[in-house]
Design goal:
single chain, alpha+beta, Sulfite Oxidase, Chain A, domain 2, 7-stranded mixed β-sheet, 5-stranded mixed β-sheet, 8 helices
Length: about 300
């Protein structure tokens, strides 16, 4: 399809994750996919951004439905039932309905993408996702011409999610993208990590990944996708619009009221992990800056 992202890295360009990355060639991110294009770096520099290991990726994350501590998702998410799983796709689409996750997977092209992940709390990871382009799913259901935005909703199941007992945010967790952001070839629905089924704590069975935005935009365990002509509400923007804008693009020049965004620290480096400068659009500026041409990125943060 015309929108499909064209990767240009092979296994030789990344540091392998032992058995998995040694046994098959990666159909993975281009130089920008490792956050290098904005620095003009040669592919060999990929060694500086080796993927985080399985334990780091699956043990240190935010999924407040299971608790606010970084380890809570791994401790509690095993209670979440992910089979069977249905995603309701509705709104301004030609073929609305409840789609079985297994049927979706049979119709999608699964690829491996190595992306930088940047949290607004200033920690970062490099994650080897498996998944499909969101644009392919939207093409499958047919987007109507009047649609301008895509809204997402996370599962809300209090008997399996102890964190929702507390009013951290207004449950269920909701997110949204402008349609052109959703259709961009870097935007994927992730269904795995390192070639394995995505763990519950990371958003099983299907989560959004938008690598140039702060991590909270990449909504987990999606149960509903709605096409609309109005900007949808988003969970953290409802909590505090001053702190969390709708766009939430990684921008070292726009600080969060409580945290400078000028630097980040990669998970896995220990207590004294090196602070590194934050890259505009998380290193994907060459690919996505055109989406925001002429926009005031301070006002529309």
């Amino acid at each position: 399809m015309a929108h499909r992202w064209k990767p240009d890295l092979t296994q030789d360009d990344v540091t392998p994750y032992r058995a998995f990355l040694n046994r098959r060639q990666i159909v993975a991110g281009g130089v920008a996919g490792l956050g290098l294009a904005a620095m003009g770096a040669a592919p060999a520099r990929a060694l500086d951004l080796e993927p985080n290991d399985w334990e780091e990726i699956t043990s240190y994350n935010n999924f407040y439905e299971f608790g606010t501590d970084k380890g809570d998702p791994k401790r509690h998410a095993g209670k979440m039932t992910t089979t069977p799983w249905t995603v309701r796709i509705d709104g301004m689409v030609d073929r609305p309905g409840d789609y079985d996750f297994t049927d979706i997977m049979e119709r999608m092209t699964i690829e491996e993408r190595i992306y930088r992940l940047r949290c607004v709390e200033r920690w970062s990871m490099v994650v080897p996702w498996n998944g499909f382009e969101l644009a392919d799913l939207l093409d499958m259901v047919g987007v109507r011409p009047e649609a301008r935005y895509v809204a997402f909703e996370t599962l809300l199941r209090p008997d399996e999610m102890p964190g929702v007992r507390y009013n951290v945010i207004d449950w269920p967790y909701v997110e949204g993208l402008r349609l052109d952001e959703a259709m961009h070839p870097l935007t994927i629905m992730a269904t795995g990590i390192y070639g394995k089924t995505i763990p519950n704590q990371n958003g099983a069975p299907m989560r959004l990944v938008v690598p140039w935005k702060y991590g909270y935009k990449s909504i987990k365990s999606v149960v509903r996708i709605t096409l609309t002509d109005k900007q949808p509400p988003t969970a953290w923007n409802k909590y505090s619009a001053r702190e969390y804008g709708f766009y939430s693009n990684v921008n070292p020049n726009v600080d969060h009221p409580r945290w400078s965004q000028a630097f980040e620290q990669k998970v896995g480096g220990g207590l004294f992990a090196q602070r590194v400068p934050t890259l505009m659009f998380n290193g994907y500026e060459d690919e996505v800056a055109s989406l925001y041409a002429g926009m005031d990125l301070v006002k529309y943060h």
